[in-house]
Amino acid sequence: MAVNYETADHGVSVVAVDGPAGSGKSSVSKAAARRLGFAYLDTGAAYRALAWHALDTAIDLDSADAVVASLHGFAYAISLDPADYGVRVGATDVTEAIREPRISEVVSKIARVPEVRGHLNTLFGGLIAGCGRPGIVVEGRDITTVVAPEAPVRILLTADEAVRLSRRSAELGGASAEALAQQLSARDRQDSKVVDFMTAADGVTTLDSTHLDFDQTVDAVVELVHRVVPLERPQS
Ligand SMILES: Nc1ncnc2c1ncn2[C@@H]1O[C@H](COP(=O)(O)OP(=O)(O)O)[C@@H](O)[C@H]1O
Ligand SMILES: Nc1ccn([C@@H]2O[C@H](COP(=O)(O)OP(=O)(O)O)[C@@H](O)[C@H]2O)c(=O)n1
What we know:
Elements: H1 7-10, E1 13-18, H2 25-36, E2 39-42, H3 44-56, H4 64-70, E3 76-78, E4 87-89, E5 92-93, H5 101-111, H6 114-129, E6 135-140, H7 143-147, E7 153-158, H8 161-172, H9 177-192, E8 205-208, H10 214-228
Parallel strand pairs: 1-6, 1-7, 2-6, 7-8
Antiparallel strand pairs: 3-4, 4-5
The structure holds adenosine-5'-diphosphate (ADP) and cytidine-5'-diphosphate.
Adenosine-5'-diphosphate (ADP) binds at residues 19, 21-28, 167-168, 171, 209, 212-214, 217.
């Protein structure tokens, strides 16, 4: 079921960004949100936090029933301020822990369960509607197609796989390049069975950042937003 949070309904302009792992969704969306004065919602963090919670409570991730049952005790909180990112489960700050490879390895098992997706999409809908800013940049895998298909700006952020890998391995420092490559492409393969984030749906703009540096990519997103959402531009 689509959850529509467009300007007309809630007064919040949604910028929807999808793409594969390492394409730059989180970093570019966060920077674009700061430039625009918008909120920022990282939806992948919720799937990662639920995976963290499931591991923490020794839930069998191969059992969809057990994963669905774990949603009852899942007290999730995320900051929507792009200048002050943070994720909590109950009283525990999991901002760093959810990035660990042990979470990346299992998160797709969580994401493939339809009840989990439905539950989290409802949660995202509430966060978007109540974000308290004129707009919000929301990034993930199914934002342009399921979470906010009516968003005024919808972007598929891509980059060649080799480029995505080298960006991610630079970020993780010590991780073995080969192990990382295997994990990242295995995760994309698993995730693609659930939602298609490799091809742009109708009306979605593809932004290929393979040959763009970080600032150029953020500029391109901000420009796309200015084209369709009436906002004051900062004086230069
Ligand atoms: N256009 C770009 N050029 C160079 N580096 C980039 C670009 N976009 C993102 N990055 C870097 O690549 C890494 C992965 O980006 P990230 O935002 O975590 O991707 P995703 O959220 O899609 O997995 C980060 O270190 C980020 O700073
Ligand atoms: N909208 C979303 C966002 C993330 N996810 C899942 O959550 C995982 C982590 O997402 P992420 O955005 O943090 O991943 P990266 O691209 O940053 O590595 C993905 O591998 C998907 O399994 C999803 O299914 N749908």
